[in-house]
Amino acid sequence: MKILSLEFENLNSLKGRWKLDFTQSPFAENGLFAITGPTGAGKTTILDAICLALFHRTPRLKSIAKGNNELMTRGTGECFAELEFEVQGKTYRSNFHQKRARGKHDGALQTPTCEFADADTDKVLETMLTKKTKLVEQVTGLDFSRFTKSIMLSQGEFAAFLNANANDRAELLEELTGTEVYSLISERIYDHFKSSEESLNHLKAKAEGVSLLSEEQIKELTAERETLEAEQKRLAEQLKEWQAHLSWWKDVTKAEQTIATSEHDCKTAQDELGRNQPSLERLANSEPAEKLRPLHKDLKRCEQEVNTTQAHLDNSTKLLAVRDAEKQDAQTKLTQSSAIVEQVKTEQQDQEKIIDLVRPLDNRIAVLKDKQTAAVNAANTLNEQHTQQRNQQVVLVQKTDALKQQDQLCTEYLNTHQADQHLEKYLGQWQAKVEQVRTLERQHAEQLNSAKQALCAVDAQQTIIKSAQDAKAAQDKALAELVVLESSAKQQWEALQGNTSEQVLNAQKDLLEFWNRNTHSLLEINRGFLNAQQQLHAKTQAHQTNTQLVDKLSKEREVLVERYKEKETSLERLTRLIDQEGELAKYRAALESGSECPLCGSTDHSIEQSQDIANLVAQKETENLELTAIKKEGQEHRQQLDSLAPMIAALNDDIQRTQADIQQAQLNWQGVVGKLQQSLSDFAGTAPELALLTVNDLGNEATVATFAQQCELQLSQFSQQLKALGDAKAHYAEAEKQRLSVSVMADKAQSNLELAEQRFADLNKQNHSTNEQVAQIAQAKEQQWNALKESIVQTAIEAPELEHIDDWFTAKSQASNTWQQTKQQQADIEKQLITQNAELKTLDDKLSSAEKELATLTQQSESLASELTRVVSERTELFGDKDIQATSNAMKQKVTEAVNAFDAAQLVLNRCELEHRTEQTKHISFCEELTSKQSSYIQASNAWLEALKTSPFEGEADFEAALLDEEVRTQLQIQKKSLDEAIVSAKARLNTAKATQVELQNHANAKAWQEQDQQQVEEATTECQNAQQSHATKIGAISANLETDNQNRSNQQDLFKQIDEQQVDFDDISRLNSLIGSKNGDKFRKFAQGLTLENLVYLANKQLQRLHGRYELKRKADDGLELQVLDTWQGDVMRDTKTLSGGESFLVSLALALALSDLVSHKTSIDSLFLDEGFGTLDSDTLDIALNALDNLNASGKMIGVISHVEALKERVPVQLKVTKHSGLGVSEMEKQYKVIA
Q1: Which of 67, 759, 861, 1155 has the greatest number of C-beta atoms within 10 Å?
Q2: pTM exceeding 0.70
Q3: Where is the signal peptide (predicted)?
């Protein structure tokens, strides 16, 4: 990446627009330049502009956005930065621009804009802020961090990498080269390892935590369950009998309680009826009066309506008289208000006639006053202007005289110093040539010093060569001894191998390990197969027993269904007969002795001829009990069948599952045996002497156990043999490693010797070259000085000596500046004289015009005053000093009040007339209503009298005495109905309870059941139920244990398979974790960073060789990322980086910075470099070393810009970009040639 040009505006203290074109002079001829100026002038702002144009940020300001821009110059409304640069032969343009609202310095910051374009075609590639920075990174291959460490080294960061500790250096390497991915890989591998280990441990713990029942335990549990099931069946039969016994006792008790309750209720109802007899008689006597109640009620209503209407009519008559009086009063007040309105309107008309005459006079007075005031003001203004113009005339005359005197003095000076006119043209050229002479003089001194140093280096290198020769001889001797040791170790290893190689032994061990792992699976499969066969036999027997029981219960239930239907039909027939007898009993009760029967016509009604109802009821009760017993027995059969169905279904599922387990065990056995046989057929070497299992060995525990023991034994033998062979191999490898290490050191000693000899030859060559350069520089210096003196003499000026040239330049520069300033001053004076003469003429014309205008204004003012006096006198005679508007408003208010009073009186009259008409209408309505109500009353009275005559009552008083209140009558009716229903209900319950009691006493088991009371039966039933529940709980627990055991045996096979698979995965990730895995990612990251640092040191040493051949960087072998320096001028002594001097540190830091630049620039070469370092802490010798390094770097084709205010640096670097600070203004500027003129 090469920076071509930079243009920016209003950044920090550099106010205005500036442009630096690095492709033009003076930068094109000199790739090394300095940016100089006092502290705080704005030198670093130039580098800030580069960063802002590319990345919208600077090293000192992390973010520049809409609400935050500390980079914009104070008091300006916008800032701008644009950079043109070249990458791989293509030119690009990148800029950043931000304004304030309305372009004002106090406006709000607006959203920044940007542009990234192809400078060759002017095609815009991106204008969005975030996308633009990403495109810059893509094109240049540098993000902001890499850019500030490869192209632009900011203040304080130049030696950051060299002086950093190991941890900080690791972070810098990671940040610069992106090696954080290795940390993530290391962490992920460690996490995968821990997860795999946890899964494996979980599976193993799960396998160890499962316990299976033994065969003896299974048999005991099965026998216990069968015993409990038989006892459960016996308890069910016994519970059925006790429940029937308890139900009979409950029915007997209930019947006895119902008879006693019904008899009590019947007696209570009869007593209540007797106590309420008087009230019931009163109810009966009120029936005739109830028939007359509507007519009497209608009569009273009509009488009340007549009275109410008469009262309304009387009130209306009184109110009508009041309304008539109010109406007459309102009429009188309206007439008075009308007269007042007419009078006020007449007064208003008279006043308006006078106002019409006065208003024009007021308008004329106002106009005259305005004109008079304007004339007076104009006259005063003209007087003031006239006075000012007289004063200005005097001042201009004085200034003109002074300017004429100054012009005369300038003319005399220019004529006297005519020779200084052309100095400005030649002084710059002469100063540049003097600077070149001095540069050659400094180079001559430096080359002389270099020649002395080179001669010393040649002597030192001869000592280094002697040391290298001694070191090589020692390494050759050690190498010979280690070759003998290695040969002996190799013979021992080969002797142990014998006829069988380590590869064959490892293969046989791997085969046996594979067999041993699968042996565990075979043992589990065999145990599962035997257990499944035992379970299948037990489940099949239980299934046959339950199926036979279901068949037996189904047949018995079919018989019970037929019996139930027969009993149900018989019960319905008896019910119909009893109902018929009940109906016939009602008719018999209605027969009277001697009268004919309406059915048969007989007059003899003998009761003995009727059927015996008691026998029918007894038969019905017997049938009902038998039906209930059959129903209970059928329900019990149904419950047993329902309970057996899920048990049979569960047994079917268990049988199918067990059969599937057996088939799966056979398939698993075949699979594992097949893998063993396949592994033996795939094995290329000599197989172990061990007979494999076959498919038919499934179920043979002895054969499987023998095979497992043999695998274990042979595996142990092979492991011991391999261990001995491995120890011998390791001993041989260690000897070989030592031999190779010493061999490398011997090669290195040889290399060091060759390098020292080559270095000796290079130093001799360098010494010869330095002597030649000393002579060339001396000759060039003499030629440059002679040419300069000849150029000065040609201008007719005497040339000074070189040691006095600075004073001579100062004097001539002052003389040239004085002549130019005097010439410019004379031109300015002539311009001012022309301007002031024109101003004097203009003032004369203005004074004359003002005097004439003032006389005219005075005459106008006197005329206006006379006219104003006449008009004011005429107005006073007509209207006095009264105000027209106020007088007119007062009259209008008086008229308005009179009209409002008239309107109010009119509204009162209208309201009174409306109220009078309304009340009159009401009065007529009440009269008509009274007539109608009186007619209705006469009709109701006649109807009442007619009804009273035909009733049993003598008069209205007798009627009212017999009449009951409606609420009382309703209560008596409800009471009578309730008493009748209570008697009927009590008798019915009594009859039903007695019939039930007879039925229970006639039960077949009644006599036997009465021997035990109800409490004894309840206790026996509860005891039987508890025993049955306890047995059911035990049966469920035993079944659950057996089922869990079966499930555990099935799951165990899958679990061992998962453990084998997980173990393989764990072995792989465990090996990888031991190599590069770590919890915090350090292991792999440090390895990757070590490789990166090796590459960086290699690149830095290449740069050091070009800058200064004395030093070479090395990594500390035992200290991670620490660095040390090899000093080749001091016998290759190793030095810590902290012992380097300022100049040495600068050289090494610069080499590291250039190496980092090469390292991080993935896509492009770095052809521009900016160093923001002050060099203020370096002494003169160290500064010379640093500047020589920069010269060498510049010679390689790089453009280098250095920011500094060190005077020695200014002298050594001919091209300087000066930044000047204006005292007290807070702004700075560069030289005028870089200013962009709008």
Answers
A1: 1155
A2: no
A3: none
